[in-house]
């Protein structure tokens, strides 16, 4: 004989209350959005690290390219700029789409990049987010200032790429009635 609420010995019937899914607004209310200053300082950490790595890399490349510079002349400013953009793109898009979901600066400050549902983003979406930052900067950094006034603390690049920047714990610390919230908080 089986207990009420179970079918057979290993399958449990899910009560009707658990089957209800929260609407998008309910899920949005529990996400912990990262603010402007935390994001800014994470960027500064990344920028200092990247600048050092790029400088060291360029120093090694330029010092070992004497043969090529004799053949082709000096490295042009645009070649170096191109290499900088490629290096930064791979760093930001690669780190934000990785298992950690964050660059080194974001990891230090406990921030992650997710899609609108709090899930990990793929490299393509991270690439859109990275190159959308050019537009955020071109508007006198107004795209970044949007973090101060948007409901989900999204910059222009986040809106374009459909991403969120959340604190590492992702969810506000509170008890919610819906069983899905407990599942969202579990690792």
- Sequence stretches where pLDDT stays below 50 over 5 or more residues: 10-19, 174-178
The fraction of residues in strands falls at 5-15%
Number of helical regions: 10
What does the oligomeric state look like here? single chain
Order of helices and strands: EEHHEHHHHEHHHEH
Radius of gyration from the CA trace? 23 Å
Structural class: mainly alpha
What does this structure look like?
56% of the residues lie in helices and 11% in strands. It is mainly alpha-helical. The protein has one domain (32-185). The chain has a three-stranded antiparallel beta sheet. It has a two-stranded antiparallel ribbon with strand order 1-2.
Notable characteristics:
10 helices, mainly alpha, two-stranded antiparallel ribbon, three-stranded antiparallel β-sheet, 187 residues, 11% strand
Secondary structure elements and their pairing?
Elements: E1 6-7, E2 11-12, H1 16-19, H2 24-30, E3 31-33, H3 36-63, H4 66-72, H5 77-96, H6 104-108, E4 111-115, H7 123-138, H8 142-145, H9 156-161, E5 163-171, H10 179-185
Antiparallel strand pairs: 1-2, 3-5, 4-5
Helix pairs in contact: 5-7
Short recap of the structure:
The protein is mainly alpha-helical and 187 residues long.
């Amino acid at each position: 004989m089986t207990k009420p609420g179970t079918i057979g010995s290993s399958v449990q019937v899910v009560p009707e209350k658990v089957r209800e899914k929260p609407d998008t607004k309910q899920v949005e209310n529990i996400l912990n959005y990262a603010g402007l200053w935390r994001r800014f300082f994470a960027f500064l950490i990344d920028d200092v690290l990247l600048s050092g790595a790029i400088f060291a890399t360029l120093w090694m490349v330029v010092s070992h390219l004497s043969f090529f510079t004799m053949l082709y002349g000096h490295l042009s400013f645009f070649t170096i700029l191109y290499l900088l953009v490629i290096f930064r793109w791979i760093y930001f898009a690669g780190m934000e789409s990785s298992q950690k979901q964050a660059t080194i600066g974001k990891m230090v400050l406990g921030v992650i990049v997710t899609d609108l549902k709090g899930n990990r983003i793929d490299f393509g979406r991270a690439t859109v987010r990275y190159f959308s930052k050019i537009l955020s900067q071109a508007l006198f950094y107004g795209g970044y200032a949007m973090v101060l006034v948007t409901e989900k603390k999204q910059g222009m690049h986040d809106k374009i790429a459909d991403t969120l920047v959340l604190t590492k714990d992702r969810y506000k610390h509170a008890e919610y009635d819906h069983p899905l919230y407990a599942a969202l908080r579990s690792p």
